[in-house]
Design a protein that fits this description.
single chain, 291 residues, alpha/beta
């Protein structure tokens, strides 16, 4: 079984390399990024103390229509990280966004981003190939998603050209929608994000991420960020974490890993709750982020 898993990992990595687009990446990637998602300001300090790592990306979530979290973003920037903002249009029709109903809000939001005076990562309506959000593939058509994405991009880009636009998809799975249908186009995307979690003890980085990355490489050569991932606090967590970093290093074009260091009602990904996993993360993350 181990030999089979190793052979599959090699085959998937080779497949990604073979399918990689010859087009150059839109944004330079001078280093590997190690990031964290879902932590408060205090939680970020705790993550840094526990892991010994100062993240290069800090991911936060904001609801479309809410004011820009300027103070939080400024704190992240002053801490030396790039903010990654997930702008989530809960209870908003993407068709109305594309039609211009929220342009005044978008202009205010864009002006606030510009006043930060710093490069940030911005993602709109993430994981649209899944079905759990109102902008997902069971509730919103691919055409409506693409039109809204392009409209949001065009309004905000008038104010700030420094933004790195992250098109963020969920790992493909049975029942998910084709990611190609929701591709906004190379002129609207700088980086591609892929979200995926190792929910079960048998899951590996290659099982979760490689098939989606192979698919992505059929139509884009943009840099790829593992924008959300995590392992559960179970005996295999340390081995899974080691595999995440090994996989991210092995697959061409993957430029970063963002770890979701938080707990939900169903799942606990906090490294601080698992000493062997934390020790592995400290070691592997340090090696990954300093090549």
């Amino acid at each position: 079984m181990r030999r089979l898993a190793a052979a599959c990992a090699v085959a998937l990595t080779a497949a990604v390399a073979a399918c990689s687009s010859p087009k150059p990446a839109a944004s330079p990637n001078p280093t590997r990024y190690l990031g964290v998602a879902g932590v408060s300001t205090a939680g970020l300090r705790g993550f840094e103390q526990a892991t010994g790592i100062r993240p290069g990306i800090v991911e936060i979530y904001t609801t479309f229509g809410d004011p820009l979290k300027s103070a939080r973003l400024t704190a992240i920037i002053r801490g030396g990280a790039k903010p990654l903002v997930q702008l989530e249009p809960y209870h908003v029709s993407l068709s109305t966004i594309a039609a211009g109903r929220y342009d005044a809000y978008l202009r205010r939001y864009a002006a606030g981003l510009s006043r930060l005076g710093h490069q940030i990562l911005l993602s709109f309506a993430p994981e649209a190939n899944g079905y759990w959000y109102n902008w997902g593939c069971r509730s919103t058509s691919a055409a409506a998603f693409v039109a809204a994405w392009r409209h949001v991009h065009d309004i905000i880009a008038r104010y700030d050209r420094r933004i790195i636009w992250l098109w963020d998809v969920n790992q493909s799975f049975p029942g998910s929608c084709p990611i190609t249908a929701r591709w906004p186009g190379g002129g609207y995307v700088d980086w591609v994000g892929v979200d995926g979690y190792l929910w079960y003890p048998y899951l590996t980085f290659n099982m979760v991420f490689a098939p989606t990355i192979v698919n992505l490489r059929l139509f884009t050569g943009k840099p790829i960020l593992i924008a959300e991932t995590g392992v559960l606090n179970m005996p295999q967590a340390a081995a899974q974490l080691k595999g995440i970093f090994a996989g991210a290093k092995a697959i061409p074009g993957v430029i970063g890993v963002v770890y979701s260091d938080y707990a939900t009602a169903q799942h606990d990904y906090r490294l601080e709750k698992d000493r062997p996993a934390l020790a592995t993360f400290r070691r592997e993350a340090k090696d990954y982020a300093t090549r």
